[in-house]
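The methods section describes the discrete structure representation at length, but only in general terms. An entry of this sort, consisting of the sequence and the corresponding backbone structure tokens, reads as follows.
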Amino acid sequence: MTEDSGVAAWAALLRTHAAVVRVLEREMDRDGLPLAWYDVLLELNAAPDRRLRMHELGERAVLSRSRVSRIVDELARAGLAAREPDPHDRRGSWAVITADGRARLRAAAPGYLDGIARHFADHLTADERTAITTGLTRVLDAAARDA
């Protein structure tokens, strides 16, 4: 691979991510569950016991750590998540999805998945989706080893 093709792939990834996220944000906002809220609730719902330490959530969510903290506060005010103190670390806390949060996540999932299909996956062949998944997973694994 030439340096130019690597830069072109990187630029296409960033531009595509930004464009698709903008459209998904607009659609999710209209449906009443902002995309950032969905992302945090999705990570909490998938976690063991449906809870994560705040720093773990900050590592998993596709948001900055300071934004994750603000979103957990917003979700808590909306009754969709809660913060619980970590009994083993006074400085730390857990973010926990509530039953209402799980219900809102389930209700929003069809729109989220439909948006991903319409604005991303439907524009790619099955082979292209597989190649993208394989390649980006390899890059992600390398980044995790380098961290």
